[in-house]
Structure formats: structure tokens, C-alpha cells
Amino acid sequence: MAAVVLSNASVVSSLASNISQAPTVKTINGTYEGLYLPDWDQDAFLGMPYAQPPGGDLRYLWPVSINESFDGGSKATQYGYSCMQYGSTFNLSEDCLTINVVRPSVRSTGPLPVLVWVYGGGLYAGSTADPQYNLSAIVQVSQDLGQPVIAVSINYRLGQWGFLQTAQLLAEGSSNAGLLDQRLAFHWIRENIAAFGGDPDRVVAWGESAGAQSIAYHLFAYDGRDDKLFRGAILESGGPTGAQVESLSWYNSAVENLTRTVDCWGASDQLACLREVDQDTLFAAHPSVVWNPLLDGDFLTGYPSQLMQEGKYVKVPLLIGANTDEGFAISGTLNTEEDIFHSIFTWRSYALTPPTVRKLLELYPDDPCHEPPHAITNCTRNAAKGLMWRRATAIGADLVMISGRRRMAELYTAAGVPVYSYRFDQRPWNGAEWDGVKHFVNVAYSFQNISGLLGPSPQYDSHIRLARAIGTAYVAFVNHLDPNEAGPGRNSTDAEAMPYWPVYDLDKPTNIVLNATENWVEADTWRKEGIEFMMRPEVAKELLS
Predict the structure, then answer these.
(1) Among 14, 209, 305, 403, which one carries the catalytic annotation?
(2) Going edge to edge, which strands form the sheet with 24-26?
(3) How many Å apart are CA 22 and CA 20, to the nearest integer?
(4) Cβ–Cβ contacts within 10 Å for residue 182, how many?
(5) Residue 135: count of CB within 10 angstroms of its CB
(6) Residue 545 to residue 538: CA distance in whole angstroms
(7) Looking at CB atoms within 10 Å, which of 188, 275, 358, 439 has the fewest?
(8) Which of 94, 208, 326, 542 is catalytic?
(9) What is the pLDDT of residues 255-273, one digit of tens each?
(10) How far apart are CA 121 and CA 208, in angstroms?
(11) pLDDT at 151
């Protein structure tokens, strides 16, 4: 099977390692031969299938478990195909449901805790083959700390391949296939991770953006049924709000456009017809919408905001946060309140009513001195983006990310579950001032600069120290469900970079602020009135969350 190989330079050099050092593991279905990575002193097992290829008759179906075993060894030395998506340079195929495991080569005396990465990308893009998501560096942090972990990453179907929504699919019971891909991957981990030296009872899920929202959906899935798939979660810039959960009828025009384009509109069985279309023809029928999850009455029985009120969610410790300037995805030139009204009313296809938008404008007055980018405090307005753009991005950030983060922190704290909340506040070394600390810039830090985006040394060594501090906190959370328990390997620089991280408290809610210059603890009360309004159940429903 053609595949994409590891592209980080130091890992690529490891591919030439002595074949006699190749590690092997015996899973339920058979034995895999992986790679020894001498630069990291790690073993990597890449591109292992966790489901049957979801093409042909299995296209759009919920994932089907592998039902065959194999004798001898199977190579697990390359990333598998990336799932079908647009605008990427990955090697694409529908046969993409694979999983990767990276572990320290030195065996521990006991099973190791496990950190599972779920990538973001709006549920329409992303891949474990992305070099920005190389797991070796976070595993290296755990090795340095003397608290080793095993890291795992999973591919899942995207766009129309994972989230096509039609009445026929709903009746068949196949809606939300992409989320069920993730679910099956977690089950595969529970069944097989012990073979790699991992502890199936100490798994922590970790995701960013749509990856974090996916994990939140799993917390609310099946009315909050706990299948013991993970015991904690790290949610970066994502929660129950984000990719909107539309009604089935919202997709009617898009379904007609798709089926007409591939000559299935007049078929007596449209779904069967779509499954017979070859991969290239289906890919060429570029969708007219972004396909998102659906309330299917099974996996998702209600909006998270409804399930919250009913107590139907899995209660596990959370490490959760967002970036300071998350709302920068709002585009267009916004000069007037009318421009903002139109932008917010239609943005992301939320169902915000005119009274809600008017109330938001009242709660978020025009005050550029205290609006994104927050590092700019001289009340400057950006003429190219519009006089009201900073105001709109404040509203947008809170609607999509900040309110959801605070809602989850308060919900889980009230349920007696430990929550550790953060605000990431570091602009990249080469980031434009007017970009602020926007969505996704934290990922290079979480992955320990594996992509080389944190700037040249020695001028930007403080950014590397911040990345190390974040990695240290994550490793501690995976091991102990507490980011403060970093263990004997934590050095003085780590300790200075990250102050004590207090557990969230409803009486005195706090975030730890992550910055390359100084990290500190702040009161989690900024834009309090506006966010409290967004957190109301009736408004949350308008956000389709």
C-alpha cells in the first residue's frame, strides 16, 4: 500500500536504522514489525489498520472492525493513506482508517499511560501524516521526565466521506461515520495497547479544534455512556461549540447537488448508487457545503447543551483552554454594526436570532482598547479589516471557543471533577502583530517545535522553554491527571516556566496564562457578562451546540 513516510528530518534519518533492531508487537489480528528510531530511542508502529477499508459497499457506513487475522509479520513502517479531503498535499485514499503508536524503546517495569491525539481541521481536513503532528517529541519529554508515556494518533474520515447526511443514511443508521471511526479507534486501543506496553485503563484523549470538539462529543455520546475509553481529556481550542450540528433538511440542496453531479439523482436507491461511484469521480464532485455531525438519536441524542442539563455526559478530569485571539476567522471588511449583524447572523450557519445578535452587540460595545488582538492596547483600528473588526472578533472568539471552554470548566467543576484551564497567549516569533494569538498557533508548542516553527536560537529560546513547560504539564496530566505532578525529571527551568496550576474553582475561577515571557494565573472573568449570556441554554441551542 502506498503511503506517506515520516517527514521530520531527524525521524527520516532513523529509517536507515539496523533492521535487526526492528521492534515487533503481537496484536489481536497479527504481528506488526515497526521502526526503531535511534535519534529518539523510540519504537514507531505506523499505518496499522483498525477497521476494514471503507470503500465500495462500506462507503458512508459506520466503520467495520477487522475480522481477519494474519500470520507472520506485517510491516508498520510508514504512515498509511490520509483520508479524502481537499486542498492538501497528502497521499489520499478512502482506505485510510489507520493508527500509529510511538513508545519509548526502553521497557518500563509496568504498563505505561497512553496519550491519544485526534487532529483538528474542521472535520474536513487533517492527517496523522502531517509532520506538525509527529509524536516523538512529546514522548521524548516523558522520557526526560522519567514518566514515560506511549503516544497514539488516529485517522478518521472527513467531509462527505465521514459526515454525509441524508435521510437514507439516517434510516440505515450510518450517520456520523467519522466520529464512529474515532470511537472504533479508541476501542482498538483498549483491546491492543497492552501489546505495546500500554495501560488500557490509563488513556488520555488529546485534541485541538475539531479534534477537541470530537472528544467533547464522545463525552456526550450515547447519553453520556462511559465505555471506559479514556480517563481524562486535553481539549485545545475546542469543546461542544464549533462545527455546527445542523438539521437533516439543511443538507437537502447539497445532497441534490452531489447526486446530480455523479448521476445518482434519479436512482431508485441513491445510497447504493453513491457507493458504486468510483473514488476519483466522487472526489471530483466537490461538495457545496461543509458536512458536519447530525443529531442521529443514537450516538448523539441531543445537543450537548441539552445533555448538560440532564447530566448525560462522561465525567473525567479535563485540561482545557483556548488562545487569546481565537475569533480571527471572521473575514470581510466590517465598518458598521450592520456589517457585524450580518457577519454574526450568518457566520458558521449558526441559528442566532436577531434579538440574540442585538443583545451581543449591547454586551460587546465598541471598545478597541480591550478587543483583539489583545497585545495591541493603544485603541488602534485596522482600516483594511474595518473599524468594527476588532469588536466582531471578540464576539466570534467567545461564541466559538471561549464560552464553550468556560461552560465545560464550570460544568465539570460543579460535578466534582478536576479541571485545569489555560489561556494561550504567545504570538509566534514571526507572527504579524495584527494576527494576534490566533487559532492553531499553540500546536507548534504542544508538539515541542517538531515543525521548527518556534524561531531561531538563541533569540527565541524562551519559546522552546514554553513548549517544554507545556509538554511537562501534559505528561504529568497523562500520568497523574494533574499537570503539577511532573516527577523527579522536572528541572529548575521547567519549574520556573510553569507556576503551580490551580484546579478550577467556581468561587474563584482561574486560568493559567501561557506566555514565553512569563506565565501567571489570572481570574477567569474576562468578558464575563457576554460569555454568561452565550452560556444560557436558549442561546447555546441557537449556536447548534
Answers:
(1) 209
(2) 24-26, 31-33, 73-75
(3) 6
(4) 26
(5) 26
(6) 10
(7) 358
(8) 326
(9) 999 999 999 999 999 999 9
(10) 9
(11) 98
pLDDT for 332 equals 81
Long-range contact pairs involving 187-192 (C-beta distance under 8 Å, separation at least 24)? 187/227, 187/229, 188/50, 188/99, 189/99, 189/114, 189/116, 189/152, 189/229, 190/228, 190/229, 191/28, 192/27, 192/28
Report the C-alpha gap between 157 and 96 in whole angstroms. Answer: 8
**β-pair type (98-104, 73-75):** unpaired
Neighbouring-strand partners of residue 235: 207, 320
The verdict on whether 276 is a catalytic residue reads no
- Hey, what's the cell of 429? 516569533
Residue located via cell numbers 443514511: 169
pLDDT at 489: 60
Place of cell 483538528: 120
Instruction: Please give the Cα distance from 242 to 404 (Å, whole number).
Output: 9
Sign, CA torsion 374/367/242/522: positive
d(CA 216, CA 218): 5
> Burial, 514: exposed, middle or buried (Cβ in 10 Å; 0-12, 13-18, 19+)?
buried
Contact assessment for residue 517 and residue 496, using Cβ atoms and an 8 Å cutoff: no
Quickly list H helices, 15-87.
Answer: none
- pLDDT of 14: 37
Q: At which residue does the C-alpha cell 439543511 appear?
A: 250
CA atoms within 13 A on the CB side of 183: 21
Residue ranges of alpha helices (H) inside 372-420 are: 389-397, 403-414
Question: What pairing do the DSSP bridges indicate for beta strands 318-323 and 419-424?
Answer: parallel
What are the helix (H) ranges across 15-166? Answer: 136-145, 159-163
pLDDT digits over 397-443, tens only? 999 899 999 999 999 999 999 999 999 999 999 999 999 999 999 99
* 214 is a catalytic site residue: no
- Name which of 76, 142, 75 is nearest 104 in CA terms: 142
pLDDT at 341: 82
104, 142 in Cβ contact below 8 A? yes
> For the stretch 37-62, what's the b/e string if a residue is b when 16 or more beta carbons lie within 10 angstroms of its beta carbon?
beebebbbbbbbbbbbbbbeebbbbb
Which residues, other chains included, contact 341 with Cβ-Cβ below 8 Å and sequence gap of 6+? 354, 357, 358, 361
Is the Cα dihedral 529, 532, 536, 541 positive or negative? Answer: positive
Residues of the chain with pLDDT under 50: 1-20
What Rg value do the Cα atoms of the chain yield, rounded? 23
* Residue in the structure block whose three cell numbers are 517538531: 450
DSSP lists the bridge partners of residue 319 as 234, 420
Q: Give the C-alpha separation, 44 to 37, whole Å.
A: 7
